[in-house]
Amino acid sequence: RRFVFLSLAFPLVLYYVTAIPSRNENDLSGTGISAPLYFMVGFAAFGAMNAMLGAGARIAGERQVGWTRQLRITPLSPRNYFRTKVMSGYAMAIVTLLLLDIAGTTLGVRLSGSEWLHTTLQMLVGLIPFAALGILFGHLLTVDAVGPTMGGVTALLSILGGVWFPIQNATLQTVAKALPSY
Prior knowledge:
Layout: H1 2-19, H2 35-64, H3 67-71, H4 78-106, H5 113-126, H6 128-140, H7 143-161, H8 170-177
Helix pairs in contact: 1-2, 1-4, 2-4, 2-6, 2-7
């Protein structure tokens, strides 16, 4: 339940709480982008990052109860195990993206079909480092540590990557552009 809340409901609630008061802002902080569009993309990215890192939490849980040890005696290859974890993360990320896209349209976001497709594909490609990070966390951290670590990493990368607000400082923009959360 926590995973679904963090991946779906939390970004959606944050989007409405942030975008509704500024829904008539058509040039957010001089970016030339409307506030509903900026926050829609930002919170969709935030939810998708959480969805991908969530695969790591499931790995940590399976490790704790001995399930991964049990899987080693089956014909399931490690490659297929990891592929399944990544694909389940992508499935949840796609649902998150769709929910935020729908939420954006309710606040007046209008994009062409190619712009919707381009934005979604860029986000899906940008999730590759988060899939790797989720797998790493799942193998290095305990179940008790993986949740706070995921939350902290996602929040830090979101802040530094400009997910929650436009970054105005030139030095911070350079840092932001180097991060997968940008």
